[in-house]
Amino acid sequence: MKSRLILGLFCLVVFGSLQAQKLESPNGNLEMNFSLQEDGTPVYNLEFEGRAIIEKSKLGLELKEGQPLTSNFSIENTEKSTFNETWTPVWGEESEIRNQYNELVVHLDQEDSERKLVLRFRLFNDGLGFRYEFPKDSRLGHFVISDEKTEFAMTGDHTAFWIAGDYDTQEYDYTESKLSEIRGLMTEAVTANVSQKSFSPTGVQTSLMLKTEDGLYINLHEAALLDYPAMHLNLDDETMVFESWLTPDVNGDKAFMIAPGITPWRTIIVSDEAKDILSSRITYNLNEPSKIEDTSWIKPMKYMGVWWEMITGMSSWDYTDEFAAVKLGETDFEAAEPNSTHAATTENVKYYIDFASEHGFDGLLVEGWNVGWEDWFGNSKDYVFDFVTPYPDFDVDEIREYAKSKDVEMIMHHETSASVRNYERHLDTAYQFMKANNYNAVKTGYVGDILPRGENHYSQWIVNHYQYALEKAAEYEIMINAHEAVRPTGIARTWPNLIANESARGTEYQAFGGNKPNHVTVLPFTRLIGGPMDYTPGIFEMDISKLNPDNNSHVNSTLANQLALYITMYSPLQMAADLPKHYEQFMDAFQFIKDVAIDWEKSVYLEAEPGDYITIARKEKDGNNWFVGNVNGLTPRTSEIEFDFLEKGKTYIATVYADAEDAHYKDNPQAYEIKKYRVNSKSELSQKSAPGGGYAISIMEASKDEVKDLEKL
Amino acid sequence: MKSRLILGLFCLVVFGSLQAQKLESPNGNLEMNFSLQEDGTPVYNLEFEGRAIIEKSKLGLELKEGQPLTSNFSIENTEKSTFNETWTPVWGEESEIRNQYNELVVHLDQEDSERKLVLRFRLFNDGLGFRYEFPKDSRLGHFVISDEKTEFAMTGDHTAFWIAGDYDTQEYDYTESKLSEIRGLMTEAVTANVSQKSFSPTGVQTSLMLKTEDGLYINLHEAALLDYPAMHLNLDDETMVFESWLTPDVNGDKAFMIAPGITPWRTIIVSDEAKDILSSRITYNLNEPSKIEDTSWIKPMKYMGVWWEMITGMSSWDYTDEFAAVKLGETDFEAAEPNSTHAATTENVKYYIDFASEHGFDGLLVEGWNVGWEDWFGNSKDYVFDFVTPYPDFDVDEIREYAKSKDVEMIMHHETSASVRNYERHLDTAYQFMKANNYNAVKTGYVGDILPRGENHYSQWIVNHYQYALEKAAEYEIMINAHEAVRPTGIARTWPNLIANESARGTEYQAFGGNKPNHVTVLPFTRLIGGPMDYTPGIFEMDISKLNPDNNSHVNSTLANQLALYITMYSPLQMAADLPKHYEQFMDAFQFIKDVAIDWEKSVYLEAEPGDYITIARKEKDGNNWFVGNVNGLTPRTSEIEFDFLEKGKTYIATVYADAEDAHYKDNPQAYEIKKYRVNSKSELSQKSAPGGGYAISIMEASKDEVKDLEKL
Which of A483, A97, A33 is nearest to A287 (CA)? Predict the structure, then answer.
């Protein structure tokens, strides 16, 4: 990952007790003003093209001991600089990322305490990032943050796309409502989860997507969450001011800090066009460049999994029904009676390997392969898995060799059951086992309440753990796809072996009662702001009772919508989650999943409106093909797109996988049609999408001969 | 460690609803009766030669969920068996240990719940052990013990030698009082400690030493504390009934259990002679045989340390005064200004190596060698040490080679600052570093409040950690001396690489204000019941202000008493804790420390009374020399001992290191005299010990020629 600094940085240091500072974005569209109130409280505001985005908002921190870092400040000096570079991500939505901002650093002195606090603001063309810094001479040493008092004062009763603030889960459907309606909708927004802890009737999670009445789009999140608790937002719904709400530890403390030190960045992405929120790279740009020098082992993967059959309840993770409780190392699985539902058998895995190999997939995930699933959940069990001992019917050696012979890479699964100490104890051995058996990527899971007991999924202590596992994985050249971990904050720039996270309500909930049909029109505006999601798309059979008669869940999506997700839900790790036999029923549609690229030279955000629709075109890396995806919300809609992103003068074959006329996510989800067209950069498409539907297009460069019989678009 | 089964075990299984069971000790001196009360509550009592030791006492457990396991039981069946073996410890007070008991196993069925509970009683000639067992068919699966309701009903208002019940420290002076006086004395018993949490005005710790008015001695403790919270005792001082009080976790839960499973053993040692309490091996016998197959690398050690100069405040652990807070990996120690007090310098270490080598010591401990001591304590710091990075003035390579050339083995120091996760993260690397640099033993420390925050030093979660570190050390062939860890419960039988613990108020407190002068007459009856203590004796300079003018602490012990501790405080790890220069002032007395053995063929407990005096004779393993130690309490006392433990017909030289006539722990602690005598098995000695004094005797086999000029005793 090289970075290219286009313009050097210059620096202005101004000493003196200045009371107001203005910072403009490089293109002048955004303006941030910083000042101190009379009582020495730091405040800032933000404007976009002269329109207020953030009203005057306070900054500060309360400490467990001593004078709070909220007021009594004077400005010691300020620094301004500008920065402009282009860097090359290991994987991503584009092959080069521009990182350009103007920076203001404010050095504050606190009266009486003689403590120092630094505020660093970076204003990009598409938004603002700022953080707190505690310099070496801050007189802080070790200190505990009891509350972060960062305000985001809204200019009105905006529309928000929100999920309930929670210390343990993000796996909620989004609610679209006015800010003033959050309180009334909170109870129904908090649906049941196996581990959850809400904290306030107006508490919501980031990234939070907002829309103002006059058509401005605002996104609030954080970047570079490292060894600090995850930030939520708590709304004062009289004043419409959000305040940061950090995830507490077991004693209610928020962050144990050491000076010199920093907080994560707080980010505000702004535009008058929704699609610009999707193209923003602020979150990555506020993270440090890669700390992994040789990244050649980090590779995007398209994969299948022995997984959906367990999620739907058709098969089981566990091997036997004999044990009420398992003691690893003592319980004898060899002597146990197998149940008839265990999915991770050598035979079944080989069946998946055959299918994955035949259709060109890179990898295969297998869950439920290792002993311990009989009592893995809900028992607050400490030693729940050892991550190296297979069930008797899963032959590690045979599978390793078979997968190798079929050119499919096995993907490891480490469910931790949120027993974090146990996982850390086994981490080296588990990673070594992976490398010895050709597993170079691992899906990790943190289902259930955290051990050590009393901690939360998003508290500092546990955020620290996810990072520990990630950095140790990098030592072993292992890629991580972490489920139920804290939502990403652009850390994959620094540690690009974090190839995906779950950290939101994924496709699995389509088998647990369903997701909202427009869920996937919101996720790119919220969850994906911090990094890719292992959403596990590609479900072709929407009637789950066909897999498991006891499960009446329905997948609220059309088949064409499922295809579009490979484009609209960017991830370097893309699953085809359904069973091989379901793909075999729709091989013409499955062709798109086989064709679609997973790493991109560039992305063009054609149209987008959160909750309603998203249409994106992407050009594959190291190739000339393009792929387009459209996902649609509840209202049938015709999308009008131009193909001017294509290279001028070239001819392509566009294969359009679209909802059939009568398609509907609920009643007729499998109704799709596939059409081929001749297209070039002047082509235009008018394409209808059904409720919960969408379309996917592959655009392959072609010779004139190849396209001569095709209809021109 | 081989074990020799002398008599086979036989087994009687009796089915039916039996309501009372009697169990006798092999010699018939002890009788235990078990029965169910009318409501199905299990009860037991214990008698010694017809005299009540434990009145009828209830047994049972309360669970977090479901019917408590306290009543509604019926007896499904009972089993009786007898056991007699002799086993060979790797190290110890004797080279062979007899393990003989009669066993009663009671299988209980609980009405309604249909749960099963098993009680296993083992009655030895010197006491009782019993535990709860949860069989596979107990219908318990995973369960949480919210309280253990084991009673020990006293027969009267006994005298107790107690320290305050506490979840985090055992480092208290003992109080001798009637049971009825505990409540009134509790406040003054709870002296300040850096991490402490008391729970009840009548809560005390085990092992608890008791004496009845009619001269019976009773000791209450536990054996084989594994993955379970440490047990305290809470006294109902109206009924004089002790009840078990388990150390809670952060949520107040006690033990997370899995069936099949067991609790630790609860032990009651009984005799009408105090010295028999010292010779009891019940605690070891109730532990499993060694799980380490090749124990050849486990070796008792006599050692010195770069330590006392820091404890007294004469030198420092930390290297520099520059940093208010250290970030390992970021803070630059190479560039820092050293303070002038850092003790662990290459030069100083070499000085100690020279002295240790010259005087035949096996090892040298060095504390403060690794970066992180500047802010190690009191900051709830997570990443406090990395256990592998030395300060700039400590040359690992040079010291390794120098120590090797001088035939001294370096002893590693791992202070964790109670940051347990951080220690576990570094454990493999730290152990590997040790082996690479010829360190085969480590002193660990857990000073301060536990991280993960909210846990306690003696809760199940952390007890599990000490065991984890111990077992992992065994994999690396590393011996452990754990300070501030939970007090031992005979686990060293199973894991003989646990060569010592602190887990009580050690010699260091002589530099922190002093210990009670009779402290060492109590410890063998309490703390040492579970295993050896790294008491760090051998202080010759009792006026600490001579080391550090700012420290007015006084060592409440005579010099002769310090010598006696090498015998009376059994440990396979014995330190000579004082500075070389203080030994150089008293080389004739120092000779005893050089001569004394540290591993024993047999031990003879000559006389003992808790709080007053202890006199023990021990014969070295693989040799014919004997060593005798006497420690005395507050009252001057003349000890009359016979040498009939010596081999008949042999002649020895006895060198007696005793208090001088005017010696006194306070005013005249360094007044000692050394006399040599000719002795044989018929010799008798009448020897006076001063307050806080004692004597030590080396008895070396000698030819008639060698003894001809010596006075006969």
Answer: A97
